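Box 3.1 A note on notation
Throughout this textbook, protein chains are presented in two layers. The first layer is the amino acid sequence; the second is a token string describing backbone geometry. Keep the layers aligned when reading.
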Amino acid sequence: MKRVLVAEALDQEGIDLLKTHFTVDTREHTSEGELKNIIPQYDGLMIWTYTRVSKDVIDQAVKLKVIARAGIGLEKIDLKYAESKGITVRNTPEGNTISVAEMVFALMLSVGRKIVLTDKYVRSQAGWDRDQFVGTELADKTLGIIGLGNVGKKVAKRGSGFEMRLLGFDPFLDKREMAKYGVEKVDSLEDLLPKADFITIHVRLMDTTHHFFGKPQLNMMKKTAILVNTSRGQVVDQKALVKALKKGEIGGAGLDVFEIEPPDDTELLSLENIVVSPHIAGTTHEALKKMTFQAAKIIIEDLSR
């Protein structure tokens, strides 16, 4: 019977599905060195967040036919080298889209209503000066969505529920397609950034999107605008963002991702006009269940051919 390795802690329902077809070994965590040593035994591999499938690992994967990533990004896998060796690599692009979209609004509300600061204030028992925590509503504000893929579309749907005006920038979607989601298409960031009260980024990390959002884009934003990034940290020029936040050139930021993870930028982390989280936008019980199940189906489909 073919063997599959689930290299990280994932949802049991998807693992049980795999076990109806293959011999399955599960691990809580697998380092690159450990994976290199054990991968020769396996026909299929499922990973999630931490497992790195490097060229050295792939060189030892003599039986491996498929790698399924429970999630979206494939940057932990040497994709070109795996494909050159005839290994199928697939992800689960829709498994955590609702979780990410909801996190966008969690960050927007947390920054806009100063939730972290108010929580600390009340716990400190320093007083009851509510005037220092006046926030801003989402209703009737303009939400700029950069990237109208699977997540961006779900963000748009939820933005409508908050009675927001929606502007979208995505060169791959036309005006008619965006209108289906209640989004007004703009042709450039120059058309979007000066108008938006909240801006959320949903683009893939590629060579062309590294520091895609930097000083020129920050300079175009309103001084009260809030930037949210749940895509990849390297998409935003973090140093430029810190300067803009410190100088009050933008209102605030909600960041789930960072250029270096975990972040070591003490200047960034000392700011009070940001809310940060440890790359968990797509991490909910529901998303983990869907991603594991979808990854299991990928492996079953590929190894059953």
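The two ends are 14 Å apart (CA to CA). The CA atoms of residues 254 and 275 lie 5 Å apart.
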